[in-house]
Amino acid sequence: MTTLWYVSHPEVRIDGDVPVPRWGLTDTGRARATAMCAQPWIHDIERIVSSDETKALELAAIVGVHRGLPVEVRPGTAETDRSSTGFVPPDEHDALAAEWFAAPESSPSGWEPAVAVQARVVAALADLLEGEAPAMIAGHGGAGTLWWCHLMGVSIDGVRDQPGAGHYFAVDMATRRPLHGWRRVDDIESD
Q1: pTM to 2 decimals?
Q2: Using CA atoms, how far apart are residues 179 and 28, in angstroms rounded to an integer?
Q3: Contact, 11 vs 28, CB < 8 A?
Q4: Which of 5, 30, 116, 167 makes an SS bond possible with 162, Cβ 3.0 to 4.6 Å?
Q5: Rounded to the nearest 5°, which phi and psi values hold at 129?
Q6: Model confidence pLDDT, tens digit, residues 6-35
């Protein structure tokens, strides 16, 4: 079985003066990304694809150095465009995210609608499912959840979202179906 792993970036350094796509990983996020390199499946990866956002690129670079692989950048895999609001405090962000998942065709506070993000990510990753090389995608929780919902053939719903930063799921490339839900990057599994 050839597998593709979708990995959401771990913890980020929140800075209201920096555009959200340019936020980088915190020391904790870097430590968790490094710990993820002990996952048994990391040694199977032959290809690394990343969103063009700094936090995902930093995650991809850590795995790329560990595996000796280059990182392919795909802007179409970026997280939801939230430039209309920029940084919002966590409570406000959580409320907007809940609205975003609950009404996927809407645009809460000008955010990119969930259905648009899902279509963009599905298109940007379609060729990876056609390939034969085990791959890892360094991405984001919201975008990854939307892709997982598409692959499972289920409706967009916030209950399917990752339980926090730094999680992954695996996809059987032959069936194009996820093998499991979100798992923590630093909880060593034997996929």
Answers
A1: 0.96
A2: 27
A3: yes
A4: 167
A5: -75, -15
A6: 999 999 999 989 999 999 999 999 999 999
